Amino acid sequence: MRLFDFDEPDTAVGSEDPVAEFALQRAAVLAAEDPARLGLLLAAESAGALVAAEMLFAGLPWREDVHNAILEANLGARPAAGQRPALLEQTLGRLRRALESPTLNPDSPAELLKALAVAGLIVTSTRSWELKKLKHPAIAPLLEYKKLSRLLSANGWHWLDTNVRDGRFHPEYVPGGVVTGRWASKGGGGALQLPKQIRGAVVADPGWKLVVADASQLEPRILAALSGDRGMAEAGSAGDLYAGIVASGAVETRDQAKVAMLGAMYGATSGEGGRLMPKLARAYPKAIGLVESAARAGEKGEIVTTRLGRSSPPPGAGWLASQSDAYGETATEADTSRARGQARGWGRFTRNFVVQGTAAEWALCWMANLRRSLHEASVGRWITDAPHLVFFMHDEVVVHTPADRAEEVETAIREAAADAGRLLFGPLPVTFPVTIATVDNYGEAK
After folding, report:
1. Is residue 13 very low, low, confident or very high in pLDDT (cuts 50, 70, 90)?
2. What angle do CA 381, 395, 382 make, to 5 degrees?
3. Cα 15 from chain centroid?
4. First-residue to last-residue Cα distance in the chain
5. Would you give the DSSP letter of residue 76?
6. What percent of the chain has pLDDT over 70?
7. What is the CATH architecture of 219-353?
8. Who contacts 272 (Cβ-Cβ below 8 Å, separation ≥6)?
9. Share of the chain above pLDDT 90, in %
10. Can you name the CATH fold of 18-62+168-218+361-444?
């Protein structure tokens, strides 16, 4: 798919003329194998770019005093430059005493690993999930320190000073910034990483509300629709797809259903996910067959595509060379083993690409439909004087709306989700329910 000609010289046709570039895009769409789908992708991406620009302009309502109160409650008063907040310093003291390391700097992974080893705690990383497996008096203060340190560095006072102005945080998105089509963000704001700890600072204006909506179990439902697996579609028809999988007899518990679906979409071969995969494959052969087919294609270096025609990137020259060398006359057992591992790794990428990429397309269509609906209901009014989108994160949207129009916005959100499903998949019996909360602040939504 051709969108822009950034790599072509300035003299290239269309490089400076948007009308000429549009003509080139239309020609490319008409020449595509499925012009309708690729045309829809272009339209969705264009609408997404408009949504991103409008959210950047409008901004997410933000109360600096509330944010500061959250920081003080968790960290203590704002410290002098170069100093740690009091509560973080106290947590560090407990950690140092538990590890008998009075000068420990836990912000240095190498130093922390060494201190843990001296205490008899052998780990390969300082990630929280690995630390939680350990039993030692130092683990609780260490996990607390990591949590508080993350809050300070990611969304502390420096973040507040830098990113909030005039009561608004202006998220700077990069539509399609990820290879699958998912959005990314730029700048220090971290628009796609607002932790629950600070969401209470996102407060609607007086007389307004925040309508927060997220698509329920989006990627498994996308897989059901992509594959046309009616059994999986029926499992999700009552609302909770994982409960529907249990009711079908495929697995015994909801947790097992969730683990099995994640294993199917991300390529689990061991553990609980790997163990449950055969059961899932028997219950939903078309759905599992689709991701397995995408994985096999990736292992061979082939390209896979999303529902609307976004293509996965081909593997790099190093990958291709490794695959070729593994089966040459001078290949060693180590060469073959390495090549097989790389092939499986690329297969896991293509397995997930088709699902995650199509989910990104659904989200684009959802936002495009919602944006249109909100604009049509507010003709003649400036964007920030009427209900408008202010935040997006993968499968979640936030609308800032006058309180008396909140119910109208909820209806528009649900209808936009249903329309997005029909746009991508036609009459297939796959539902895309959304969970909606109308709140005064974002922290109340979940």
Report:
1. very low
2. 10
3. 32
4. 38
5. -
6. 96
7. Orthogonal Bundle (1.10)
8. 256, 259, 263
9. 77
10. Alpha-Beta Plaits (3.30.70)
